[in-house]
């Protein structure tokens, strides 16, 4: 087991046009932590993972496991267990052989190998499948074998590269819980790459949001949700995505840019100039609130999800329809007008660069 | 197609379809059938009957003469020794070119490096060039190394111009294997050759079959390299067959010609009948891509 | 990778340094494995091509003479009547061979694609000539087309007394014998290519056209065949490649005769370079052949690569 330290890690793919896939990543991962890398495809999260594994060269910066610099170590020497999206089980080997492969290469004794493989198989409840070939297994079973193969060598670090994206929805939830349980039991430092924010929110001790090769924010799931560091994180995490309204700020007085009714409202920020106001769909209210920004809208689309109802409202305050999430089942008439209220206590404000402005009423330490 | 009551016209069309396909099949089979009939007749029957008249009795004299007695240029030992030559050339050439192709394909798909795609493209040119353009220097080179007129020399030539194809086969096959398989094996601590032997090669059976069949047919059927680079007693069977047919002292023995031709065709035909599926796959893979 | 600390002379660094040497070897292993092929290709494809090109600029006869005499061999080649015949033959042979193979191949493929009962067997029959050597094909057709005893006599014996078929010994017609034998050998292959293409067509596309009320012939003409354009293209390239390289078939079927009436560039090159002691001229003809192949291939490869990038 091991902590991991990234110091100014860079990855450049040389070619006709150099592609800078990872740009100056600094990050500390504590021993035993479960860290999730999340971001849109092409954000560099998988490249980062492969650099930890030693499958990609590190173009610049230093990578430490504990106090040991591992840049020049081979994948094997780093002691990595990795679970791949496609499982990457060796198709011509049985489940047992798949799991024993790495130990055989370490020239471990037959008895030791046998004992370890059976032990791990028991933990993952795949002991009855040991003689089968991967093609005779279901998706969930393959996933377990892939995890088992990674566990059996007792790695310093576990890497998961979008491991659940090939499973159907129900199985995904089940495996998600099992991986979390497994981590609680083994307490091995784990890094988990996904583009699914639900996986990120539910599994992570710490989320790392990446975009275009840079870290956008590092924090616990709730920090990411409650205090997104910039518009990218705010828009990426949360579903449906956060609503943005262009405003002009004059100290704590905010005036929406567009719209016919130039109403001014107060929010706990200190800023002058153009800014973006963010409000999550679940935080917009349908009943008048003291001090809230009132927005007149027309109902464009209604989506019924059963436990909640999503209202897509067209308004002249912002270009995209304003999305509001309402608890339970509602059936408002399409085309009817509706006034919604943005409570200042739930607002986020971002400056012209998209960086979050600190709330004046925020507690100083979390 | 919608299952419906077929009209009389449709049924007629269907019969017509089968008739056309049947006639076409007969046309394709005809030369083989005539060769077989002719090889079983004696000269008198050939002169008196038509191509399609059946032989009076099954007469294998022409076959035994073609095998061990007919004259092929300077010698009169039939095509048997040359048949042996062909195997002496084909077996090592196929084995070595397939192995090299597999390794090359493995590197060019799983261990790419900067410029490897360019090298692959440069290699592929070897599939396309008309071989006339390399005949003269190759002959000089073989002479320099003392390999002129030897089966070893022919093996070398076939390997040289075969690896472009075998590399193409394996590379295109390996590109379809998941790369993560290799990544997983590397994390398990396996090295370049270990991964090749234990992971990649066991998964390569279909492409090995395709490649071996392709190379076998190509090299067995080769005439150009055989006629240019071999001499006297090292000729492959195709060259010997051509000599047998085109050098005749006294009367032409068509039955012997046909028997010899059938023998020369037999190995590749057997492979085709046994593994036709792989043969077609090789043709289309080698062809569509190259 | 840059690791300045590793170069420091210390006992502790000695082990990692040694290991890193083996790592470096592991990094180089793929290149080392590929190296022999690269060398062979450079020498035996590109080197030899240049060798031949240089030789074509000399006056070499039986042995190479490295005294450059300019493009005299090319001038001689294009004035050579026998080369003229060979090129003319290649054009006739190539055009007919490609056209007939395409027509027969497409027709057979479409007919076979109608849920035929014995499809597997028929396919095997149409394709088997492809497994045979051109020498065997030539030998067989030489016998079939034999003016005295072959098909001509057979038809005479069957009562068609006036039937005359002497193409094999008729200098004006002998090139068509090459076409017949070559089509017999290669048309099944074209069929296989098109059948594979037809099987790759989205059946929903045909169903949609049927719902639009198109008749089967119309569906084939307007929808199916146009979508097989890449197959046509590949087949054309492969067939023209076969045509330009045709050597074995001529040697076995006609020997280039009667006279040199059925010579092709490939046989011309062989005769002059290896049996008539005209090495320089042979080399020049080989280079012209290479030019011909490149003229067809380069546009093909270009469009293939471009298609891949944008597709």
TrEMBL record, chain A:
Residues 7-237 form the ABC transporter domain. InterPro entries: AAA+_ATPase (IPR003593), ABC_transporter-like_ATP-bd (IPR003439), ABC_transporter-like_CS (IPR017871), ABC_transpr_MalK-like (IPR015855), ABC_transpr_MalK/UgpC-like (IPR047641), Mo/tungstate-bd_C_term_dom (IPR008995), NA-bd_OB-fold (IPR012340), P-loop_NTPase (IPR027417). Keywords: ATP-binding, Nucleotide-binding, Sugar transport, Transport. It comes from the Bacteria. GO terms for molecular function: ABC-type maltose transporter activity; ATP binding; ATP hydrolysis activity. This is ABC transporter ATP-binding protein. The keyword Magnesium does not apply. It comes from Marinobacterium nitratireducens. It holds the Pfam family ABC_tran. GO terms for cellular component: ATP-binding cassette (ABC) transporter complex, substrate-binding subunit-containing; maltose transport complex.
Automatic annotation (TrEMBL), chain B:
The chain crosses the membrane at residues 12-34, 89-111, 118-139, 151-174, 195-216, 258-280. InterPro entries: MetI-like, MetI-like_sf. Residues 83-275 form the ABC transmembrane type-1 domain. One of its GO terms (cellular component) is plasma membrane. It holds the Pfam family BPD_transp_1. Belongs to the binding-protein-dependent transport system permease family. This is Maltose ABC transporter permease. It comes from Marinobacterium nitratireducens.
Automatic annotation (TrEMBL), chain C:
Keywords: Cell membrane, Membrane, Transmembrane, Transmembrane helix, Transport. It is found in: Cell membrane. GO terms for cellular component: plasma membrane. GO terms for biological process: transmembrane transport. Residues 87-302 form the ABC transmembrane type-1 domain. It is a multi-pass membrane protein. The keyword Magnesium does not apply. The chain crosses the membrane at residues 28-51, 90-112, 124-144, 173-198, 219-244, 279-302. Belongs to the binding-protein-dependent transport system permease family. PANTHER family: ABC TRANSPORTER PERMEASE PROTEIN (PTHR30193). This is Sugar ABC transporter permease. It comes from Marinobacterium nitratireducens.
